[in-house]
């Protein structure tokens, strides 16, 4: 298995940390390993305990490693949160080649030129998303490589975040024994996987409803034009169930996953379950209808707040409607409630890969696809996101040969070129 064929994503969520190993074969991606662990140290999508988060990441990585039988060295890390901001930028450079053919160096220089923007001291650039290139006045160019020109321009979106959130995220990954190959905005990665080209062109809202937070991303004219994060999610539904049934939160979560229904009309009165209530030695019986009466108002509120936030961002009813993803939308009845509350076309996006056909894996698989298409071929090896996988143990009787002096010099030099 070649290192050039492997990309690993790390999705740190409020309820789960997921590690997904993807193998790129002739441009196609196969998911060959998945590891997950219950999140500790994460609240509403933010890291609140470094050590607990590190242990969770190590557990998820170990799970994925044992599935495939390799050791993970590098990961692409998804980043999200209400600290994320988008800023438009413009870069201009002169084509450097004597024959005026645009190459990778020219593209790298114009991207660097677009990064020259005023930033507040507490903010840092996460990435640059080229929206279009312009060659000698000709616009709407998506890949100018091998074209002839004198002046190369780029219209780009700069993704920025707060230094505190970025550095804490990098810190927990590095303390877990992993190298960060790059940070990828999760709404951008999810949009790349969940939305069709036409949906991104005509205007669509992608909504990722997780356990502790809901991320809203608006795509229009093939570009990510706005993003926002609301501190609401599946945990709010769980808390309502715990309060309504007078039981513990972990029991409420299990009940939600097994019997939860977001619409009373879709609930079954003959589907019953018993709940161990706080302060009582006896279990009480409830039906799925009882549970749906607790869940439906909260789900309605979540979608109402989502619609208000999209309007606040300056967008009304976009032609593409809404596309839902995230673990919470897997609950029966969620789509029906969303269609009623949002009053437009709504669908649920699910990755079409064996082993990850669940809406909660959209971000993790999206990171792999995004890295494979946009970052792996355009960056130098150390920043490419192609994961270096090494055997867990050397074969019996084999010893690892030490690199020669020339090889050590080349490895040292490669860090600077």
TrEMBL record:
InterPro entries attached to this UniProt entry: ATPase_NBD, Cell_div_FtsA, FtsA/MreB, SHS2_FtsA
Domain SHS2: 7-194
Main subcellular location: membrane
Pfam families: FtsA, SHS2_FTSA
Membrane topology classification: Peripheral membrane protein
Subcellular localization: Cell membrane
GO BP of this protein: FtsZ-dependent cytokinesis
Keyword vocabulary terms for this entry: Cell cycle, Cell division, Cell membrane, Membrane
Family classification: Belongs to the FtsA/MreB family.
Subunit structure: Self-interacts. Interacts with FtsZ.
Family annotation (PANTHER family): CELL DIVISION PROTEIN FTSA (PTHR32432:SF4), CELL DIVISION PROTEIN FTSA-RELATED (PTHR32432)
Protein name according to UniProt: Cell division protein FtsA
Organism, scientific name: Paenibacillus mucilaginosus (strain KNP414)
Taxon lineage: Bacteria, Bacillati, Bacillota, Bacilli, Bacillales
């Amino acid at each position: 298995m070649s290192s050039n064929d492997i990309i690993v994503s790390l999705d740190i969520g409020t309820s789960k940390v997921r590690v997904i190993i993807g193998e790129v074969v002739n441009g196609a991606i196969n998911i060959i390993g998945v590891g997950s662990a219950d999140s500790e140290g994460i609240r509403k999508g933010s890291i609140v305990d470094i050590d607990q988060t590190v242990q969770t990441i190590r557990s998820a990585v170990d799970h994925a490693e044992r599935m495939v039988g390799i050791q993970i060295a590098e990961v692409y890390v998804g980043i999200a949160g209400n600290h994320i901001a988008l800023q438009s930028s413009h870069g201009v450079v002169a084509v450097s080649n004597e024959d005026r053919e645009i190459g990778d160096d020219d593209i790298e220089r114009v991207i660097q030129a677009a990064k020259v923007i005023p930033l507040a001291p507490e903010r840092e650039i996460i990435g640059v998303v080229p929206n279009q290139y312009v060659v000698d006045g000709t616009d709407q160019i998506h890949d100018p490589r091998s074209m002839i020109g004198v002046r190369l321009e780029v219209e780009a979106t700069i993704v920025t975040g707060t230094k505190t959130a970025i550095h804490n995220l990098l810190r927990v990954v590095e303390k877990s024994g992993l190298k960060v190959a790059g940070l990828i905005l999760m709404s951008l990665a999810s949009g790349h996987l969940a939305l069709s080209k036409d949906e991104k062109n005509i205007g669509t809202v992608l909504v990722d409803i997780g356990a502790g937070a809901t991320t809203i991303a608006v795509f229009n004219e093939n570009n990510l034009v706005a993003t926002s994060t609301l501190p609401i999610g599946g945990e709010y539904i769980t808390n309502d169930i715990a309060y309504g049934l007078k039981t513990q939160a972990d029991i409420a979560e299990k009940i939600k996953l097994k019997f939860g229904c977001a619409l009373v009309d879709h609930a079954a009165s003959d589907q019953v379950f018993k709940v161990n209530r706080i302060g009582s030695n006896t279990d009480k019986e409830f039906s799925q209808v009882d549970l749906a009466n607790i869940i439906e108002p909260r789900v309605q509120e979540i979608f109402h707040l989502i619609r208000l936030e999209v309007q606040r961002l300056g967008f009304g009813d976009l032609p593409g409607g809404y596309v839902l993803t995230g673990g919470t939308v897997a609950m029966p009845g969620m789509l029906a409630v969303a269609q009623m509350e949002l009053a437009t076309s709504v669908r649920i996006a699910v990755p079409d890969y064996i082993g990850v056909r669940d809406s909660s894996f959209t971000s993790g698989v999206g990171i792999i696809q995004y890295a494979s298409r946009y970052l792996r071929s355009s960056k130098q090896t150390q920043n490419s996101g192609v994961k270096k996988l090494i055997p867990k143990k050397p074969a019996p009787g084999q010893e690892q040969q030490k690199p020669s002096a020339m090889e050590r010099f080349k490895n040292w030099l490669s860090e600077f070129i």
